[in-house]
Amino acid sequence: MLRNEDDVIKVITDDDWMMEILRAAKSLQLPDWWICAGFVRSKIWDTLHGFTDRTNTPDVDVIYFDKENIDESTEKFFEEELRSLIPNIPWSVKNEARMHVVNNIPPYTSAVDAISKFPETATALGVKIDDKDNVILTAPCGIEDVLNMELKPTKFFAEKKERIVIFEERIVKKNWKAIWPMIKVYRG
Q1: Where is 20: in which H helix or E strand?
Q2: pLDDT tens by residue, 104-158
Q3: In the chain, count of helices (H) and strands (E)?
Q4: What is the pTM of this model?
Q5: Contact by Cβ (8 Å): 124, 140
Q6: 3-state SS assignment for residue 123
Q7: CA distance 148 to 186
Q8: Would you call 82 exposed, middle or buried from its count of C-beta atoms within 10 A (0-12, 13-18, 19+)?
Q9: Within 10 Å of residue 109's Cβ, how many Cβ atoms?
């Protein structure tokens, strides 16, 4: 059973596949980097559902924050670097220092600030490893919702009607309830 951050860190640390991915991302030495969103959430929900097989991961989101180089081609270069290390992973690399332009919102101040503005609290999670291979978890919206299997909008998404619409559309498109039937969906 997962009850707290230490439990989440332990299930990730004990997962060789996740640790290999974290080590690959760390090898890029990106500033303010994290692997976030479904990579973390899915592991938690798979564990809470007692799944023995990993659910499909449509992508592995590696984010970082570098105001000095916001060229999208740099992100593609890093994706290729990661593919050369682990080719069978659907890598997605994004510099959050430029993503506010794509998302048409005020600039983020850091990668964790960007994570805090993801659509769902249960997805607003990131992990990385330090120099001693210790897993570090960030959860700017807390971990209660993901541990309670509750799908709610983040404060940022709950603030504006047009963002709630995006949250609602994601609920339908992602169809998470079909994958993890015990989750509870809260409408915005």
Answers
A1: helix 16-27
A2: 899 999 999 999 999 999 999 999 999 999 999 999 999 999 999 999 999 999 9
A3: 10, 7
A4: 0.96
A5: yes
A6: coil
A7: 12
A8: buried
A9: 13
Rg of the Cα atoms in the chain: 16
Tokens representing 44?
């938690």
Helix H, strand E, coil C: the string for 133-187 is CCEEEECCCCCHHHHCCEECECHHHHCCHHHHHHHHHHHHHHCHHHHCCCCEECC
Q: How many domains does the chain have?
A: 1
- Determine the structural domain holding residue 36 and report its residue range: 5-185
d(Cα 139, Cα 34) in Å, to the nearest integer? Answer: 11
Task: List, in order, residues 6 or more apart from 11 with CB less than 8 Å away.
Answer: 2, 43, 44, 47
Place of tokens 């799944």: 51
- Residue corresponding to tokens 């998404």: 157
Reported as a single tens digit per residue, the pLDDT across 150-168 is 999 999 999 999 999 999 9
Read off the DSSP letter of residue 130.
-
Residue 128 bridge partners (DSSP): 136
Q: Tell me the one-letter amino acid at 37.
A: A
